[in-house]
Write a structure and sequence with these properties.
Elements (H helix, E strand, L loop, with lengths): L2 E7 L4 E8 L3 H9 L1 H4 L10 E6 L6 E7 L5 E12 L3 E9 L12 E10 L2 E9 L3 H9 L2 H9 L2 H9 L2
Antiparallel strand pairs: 1-2, 2-8, 3-4, 4-5, 5-6, 6-7, 7-8
């Protein structure tokens, strides 16, 4: 399993996932940069994502939805606040309506993704920062911890396909 730790810190208002992969930093970066690869793992296995917009530049936006087991759709948006390829990216994240417009439901979270080389391997840290302890607890109650672990857990399979290509 790629996920090493998941740490919920109510005092710091953060949820931090650390994972390691048998691939170099540049290859792992592609999983964020390429919308077709991103949608293969963003979202847990039972809620796959579809990205219909991905402007991977600072100030750019992403619009996506995840499709649930009964065909229901949960829409979301990102706004990239910083990108330093292939090491770090930051984005604001929130829920959206069917047209991709932010709804304000459950506020906004801020994600910081860091990729660190470990020889031929890469350590990826995803830290989500919340506006309040209430927001953090609401997101965890909705399954954010399990969902993120499940989503990131799909990356090894994607990397293995390309390693043999």
């Amino acid at each position: 399993m790629a996920v090493i730790t998941m740490d919920k810190n109510p005092e710091a208002l953060t949820l931090t996932l650390v994972a390691e992969f048998d691939a170099g930093v540049d290859r792992v970066w592609q999983l964020w940069e390429d919308p077709r690869q991103l949608e293969r793992w963003w979202g847990p296995p039972t809620w796959p994502a579809t990205f219909h917009k991905l402007e991977f530049v600072p100030g750019g936006r992403a619009n996506y939805y995840m499709t649930g087991p009964e065909g229901e759709k949960a829409h979301g948006w990102w706004e990239f606040t910083a990108i330093d390829a292939p090491r770090t990216l930051q984005f604001d994240d929130g829920f959206a309506d069917d047209d991709g417009n932010p709804t304000g439901d459950l506020g906004v979270t801020h994600a910081t993704v860091t990729l660190e080389p470990l020889g031929e391997r890469t350590r990826m840290t995803i830290q989500s920062s919340f506006e309040s302890e209430e927001q953090l607890e609401q997101m965890v109650a909705m399954g954010m911890e399990e969902g993120l672990k499940g989503a990131v857990g799909q990356i090894d399979g994607i990397l293995a396909e390309h390693a043999h290509a």
